[in-house]
């Protein structure tokens, strides 16, 4: 049954405040799962079940789908839709409040979701800071947000770009035009595959590094040196040691330089409890 018919049948009107733009085209859900290469021993976590279009496609392939939906109005619809799927477990809770360590015993964890865009950053932070080890996260984002994640310099470059690219390999999976959703949002969407890499988690704490990059970008138009003055009075010396121009602005600094700077300042950041 089409998503719109299903919603009419259960008399559900979608709420903008919950980021409810549901996939109306099941072909997109099929494509996402096909490109995700879901295997039969995978446990897939989905954030935002909606009417279950993507959930159902994942459930056809994975050993288990654990899906989160905050809107209790969708409960009757989803319970009916998945009554014959023993591998679908639906939690009607706020994903951001869920204790992800409960999922530690599942093997081959993967995230696949068309997430509620209004909490894209908190969802990413939760997955990276709290999730048990996972193989990848294939997530749909607003196009602009995906561009910020992938950016290497300039106006879209931000702590988000630096953080994600430091701890993950990022691949663009698919662009999805707004006409594939109900209601149709104002902007197009992009699906990214984020594959965690262990290269830097071994040498620095992601949360600390994230805080550090926020300090670096605290005043985007000022120089990086200025933004870091509060942490280290001899910041010029550190800049010289890694050949960094004193006048450079945060959006012009490559990721490797942020990592080098962080490593040099780490002890001070930890002592100051920053
Ligand atoms: N996966 C469905 C699809 O592709 O059609 C729905 C996607 S819709 C963009 C996002 C869904 O996330 C909505 O159903 C919304 O109610 C739900 N949602 C919003 N905030 C949430 C939260 N904090 N925790 C869990 N689900 C949430």
Notes on the structure:
By secondary structure, the protein is of the alpha/beta class. It has two domains: 3-196, Vaccinia Virus protein VP39 (Rossmann fold, 3-Layer(aba) Sandwich), CATH 3.40.50; 206-268, Helicase, Ruva Protein, domain 3, CATH 1.10.8. The protein is 36% helix and 18% strand. It is built from eleven helices and nine strands. The protein has a seven-stranded mixed β-sheet. It has a two-stranded antiparallel sheet with strand order 1-8. Helix 5 (120-130) links the parallel strand 5 (109-114) and strand 6 (136-142). The structure holds S-adenosylmethionine. Residues 18-23, 47-51, 53-54, 68-71, 94-96, 114, 116, 119 line the site of S-adenosylmethionine.
Order of strands across the main sheet: 4-3-2-5-6-9-7
Biggest sheet, open or closed, and with what strands and sense?
7 strands, mixed
Low-confidence stretches: none
CATH fold topology of the largest domain: Rossmann fold
Secondary-structure content class: alpha/beta
Number of domains: 2
The overall pLDDT average reads: 94
Secondary-structure element string: HEHEHEHEEHEHHEEEHHHH
The fraction of residues assigned to DSSP E strands is 15-25%
End-to-end Cα distance, whole Å, is: 52 Å
């Amino acid at each position: 049954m089409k998503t719109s018919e299903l919603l009419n049948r259960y008399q559900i009107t979608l709420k903008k405040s919950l980021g409810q733009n549901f996939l109306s085209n099941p072909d997109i859900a099929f494509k996402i799962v096909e490109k995700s290469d879901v295997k039969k021993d995978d446990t897939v976590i989905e954030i935002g079940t909606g009417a279950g279009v993507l959930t159902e496609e994942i459930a056809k392939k994975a050993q288990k789908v654990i899906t989160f939906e905050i809107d209790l109005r969708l409960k009757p619809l989803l319970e009916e839709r998945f009554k014959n799927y023993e591998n679908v477990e639906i939690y009607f809770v706020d994903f951001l409040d869920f204790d992800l360590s409960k999922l530690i015993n599942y093997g081959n964890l993967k995230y696949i979701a068309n997430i509620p865009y209004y909490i894209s950053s908190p969802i990413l932070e939760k997955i990276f800071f709290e999730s048990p080890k996972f193989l990848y996260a294939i997530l749909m984002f607003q196009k602009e947000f995906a561009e910020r994640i992938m950016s290497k310099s300039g106006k879209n470059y931000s702590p988000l770009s630096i953080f994600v690219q430091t701890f993950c390999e990022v691949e663009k999976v698919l662009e999805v035009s707004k006409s594939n959703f109900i209601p149709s949002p104002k902007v197009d969407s992009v699906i990214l595959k984020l594959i965690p890499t262990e290269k830097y988690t071994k040498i620095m704490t992601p949360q600390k590094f994230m805080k550090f990059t926020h300090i670096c970008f605290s005043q985007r138009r000022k120089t990086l040196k200025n933004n870091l003055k509060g942490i280290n009075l001899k910041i010029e010396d550190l800049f010289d040691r890694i050949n960094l121009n004193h006048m450079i602005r945060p959006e012009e600094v490559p990721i490797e330089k942020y990592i080098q700077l962080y490593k040099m300042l780490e002890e001070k950041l930890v002592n100051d409890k920053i």
